[in-house]
């Protein structure tokens, strides 16, 4: 997947990848379609952090989930 272009498809791909990596218990509540391309760079940063680590601490997971919550369209 070419993530160099800020498209809604790429946003949804990254959100799904993050949810999978974080094994989020509330993943169903985190709909990929609730995120906008306007936050693409921030979502890409979160995606790279999540996918770039073999293991994430609980505090890292909480921080990433919190940041995703902030970026989600209300």
Number of strands: 0
Largest sheet: none
Helix content: 55-70%
SSE pattern, N- to C-terminal: HHH
Question: Any idea how many domains?
Answer: 1
Which term fits the overall shape?
A: globular
Cα-based radius of gyration, to the nearest Å: 11 Å
Percent in strands = under 5%
Arithmetic mean pLDDT: 86
Number of helices: 3
SS content category: mainly alpha
First-residue to last-residue Cα separation = 27 Å
Q: Could you name the ranges where pLDDT drops below 50 across 5 or more consecutive residues?
A: none
Structure description:
There is one protein chain. It contains three helices and no strands. It has helices spanning 8-22, 40-51, 58-71. The longest helix has 15 residues, at 8-22. The mean pLDDT is 86.
Summary tags:
mainly alpha, 74 residues, single chain, 3 helices
How is this fold's topology laid out?
Blueprint: H1 8-22, H2 40-51, H3 58-71
Helix pairs in contact: 1-2, 2-3
What would a concise description of this structure say?
By secondary structure, this protein is mainly α. The chain is 55% helix and 0% strand.
């Amino acid at each position: 997947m070419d993530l160099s272009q800020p498209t809604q498809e790429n946003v949804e791909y990254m959100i799904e990848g993050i949810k999978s990596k974080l094994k989020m218990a509330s993943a169903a509540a985190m709909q990929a379609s609730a995120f906008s391309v306007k936050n693409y760079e921030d979502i890409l940063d979160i995606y790279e952090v999540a996918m770039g680590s073999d293991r994430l601490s609980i505090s890292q997971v909480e921080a990433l989930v919190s940041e995703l919550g902030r970026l989600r369209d209300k």
